[in-house]
Design brief:
By secondary structure, this protein is of the alpha/beta class. The protein is built from 14 helices and nine strands. The longest helix has 18 residues. It is elongated and about 90 Å long.
């Protein structure tokens, strides 16, 4: 960990000591580039082959800065609701309604507006609305408004559930969108406003008008919010490119394949289940190099293929 002091001074964060990531030269470079871009609030797009460490380095960065990583892997059937959230059936409505009525009865009785022992649900709500039109102390009014919101929620059939993007925006955490190029362009268009300097998004599907801050359809990202996306190079096994309009909003980082012999030895050595098996690392990599040179094609045995053979063998 000779580089750690430089990273701390340069980025203001330390790499977790318990990280299982193999700190090859390529991974050190990728971590520094990612952390540097995110430090200044830039949305980052990492482009590289499968198994090059894109997702792993995001998790390590999240651990380093002490934030939760919200991840979503895209595919051809990814919908907008998977990213931003959507309306879901409200469960346990009767239980929620009973709890809200009980809270309202207690609050109204303490304020001297209710003397009877039992009262119907609708009567409680009407009385609550009437009391809110009178002069009340700030704390008492806030309490009754909260109870009224709970009563109204218990009458709904559906409720809004935030998706991983909205949750990360609210809490100032990190959102990782894996394989972004697999999603349809119509879905990814909802990210455009989040990638702008204002970092906002309008939840038109949700609506509003309740007056509660949490129901505001315009979501402003917290200062600590960061967005990272990953994708394989366009044309790789038929995968499409992102639209120029969307891609230009990212700070792009190219993640090259791990081909350095020393880095490969570090990775393979870490996967053997016993120290005595490490003697097979060099012969294994020698065979891979020989085979790729023999047929003049290095794509037949990628790093992921080597790792799978290593784990199976051990």
């Amino acid at each position: 960990r000779k580089y750690e002091a430089d990273i701390v001074a340069f980025l203001g964060c330390a790499v977790p000591a318990n990280s299982n990531l193999i700190w090859t030269k390529a991974m050190q470079r990728l971590f520094v580039l990612l952390a540097r871009a995110l430090k200044f609030g830039e949305p980052v797009l990492m482009v590289g082959e499968t198994g090059s460490g894109k997702t792993s380095v995001c998790q390590v960065f999240a651990d380093a800065v002490g934030r939760r990583l919200h991840g979503l892997s895209c595919h051809q059937n990814t919908e907008t609701a998977d990213i931003i959230g959507g309306l879901r059936p409200l469960r346990n409505r009767q239980v929620l309604a009973a709890e809200a009525v009980q809270e309202a009865v207690v609050a109204l009785r303490e304020l001297g507006h209710l003397e009877v022992e039992e009262i119907e649900h609708q009567s409680v709500q009407r009385l609550l609305e009437k009391v809110l039109t009178t002069e009340l102390e700030t704390d008492a009014r806030a309490r009754l408004v909260r109870i009224r919101s709970k009563l109204m929620r218990s009458q709904s059939i559906f409720e809004w559930c935030d998706g991983p993007l909205i949750e990360a925006m609210r809490k100032g955490e990190i959102f990782l969108l894996n394989e972004i190029s697999l999603a349809e362009d119509s879905v990814l268009e909802r990210l455009n406003s989040v990638l702008e300097p204002e970092r906002t998004i309008v939840l038109a599907e949700r609506g509003g008008g309740s007056g509660r801050a949490e129901d505001n359809p315009i979501i402003q990202a917290d200062e600590g919010f960061r967005l990272v996306a990953t994708m394989n190079p366009g044309g790789d096994y038929g995968k499409k490119e992102l639209s120029p309009a969307l891609r230009n909003r990212f700070t792009e980082i190219w993640v090259p394949q791990v081909e350095d012999r020393h880095d490969l030895e570090l990775i393979v050595d870490s996967l053997w289940k016993g120290e005595e098996l490490k003697v097979f690392t060099k012969p294994l990599l020698d065979f891979v190099e020989w085979l790729c040179d023999r047929i003049s094609d290095r794509s037949i045995l990628t790093l992921r293929d080597i790792l799978v053979r290593t784990m199976v063998s051990s």
